[in-house]
């Protein structure tokens, strides 16, 4: 049952991705509305899938990294739909939906022996939730930064084409970038603190310096520097956009650290 619902969700997201990318090449807004409808259907089915993944065989959510990635994907789609319905930013679908699709698709190919999280997550699953929500904030900041750099390049090269018209203005993308970091950073901070506290209670140490913990801390420090630079130092929007694009690599490396852990057990995502 779970496999069938997962495949259906992936089908909706894949179709929505194709339609959203097609919207970048055509002037018709009807294509964007169809993509939105398909994405809404995918999100509805994904909600059912998430319920199955959370509670199938266990009363505690996030007992596997695959489930946590599914939650990340679902949250990203919810943010996308919220932005589209509130601000009509249809173009976001072409950038955010592929990320959601790839995150969910990766859960289907995860080796079963690498999926289980440490039993302490059965008690402090809120750590995983906060960490994933922080990662969603950074993913949105990454998308906003990427779109900013593209729009800035189109503007400076005087290529006022269809993509230039559909991308939001630079100031809108800059605000989206900053707000996403402002929201994502406290969530990641709380997630790391909860993970450290649970590790102390369960393993007797706040940190064991495995790969995912190290990358989580590096990512946290990087985004702290970006946040301070934006708020206190007054870094320009383009510089912040470049840094958030680079910083998202740290988020991906943290995910990979969890996936390919060998001897150490994960504490922070």
- Low-confidence parts lasting 5 or more residues at pLDDT below 50? 262-269
Q: What is the terminal separation in angstroms? A: 28 Å
Q: What is the number of E strands?
A: 0
Task: Assign a percent range to the helix content.
Answer: over 70%
- Compressed to H and E, one letter per element, the order equals HHHHHHHHH
Describe this structure in words.
The chain is an all-alpha fold and 269 residues long. The chain has 2 domains: 116 residues; 136 residues, no CATH class. It is flat. 43% of the residues are buried.
Task: Write a concise keyword list for the protein shown above.
9 helices, mainly alpha, 269 residues, 76% helix, disordered C terminus, single chain, flat, 0% strand
SSE inventory with pairings:
Elements: H1 2-23, H2 29-55, H3 65-87, H4 93-109, H5 126-156, H6 162-166, H7 170-203, H8 211-233, H9 237-259
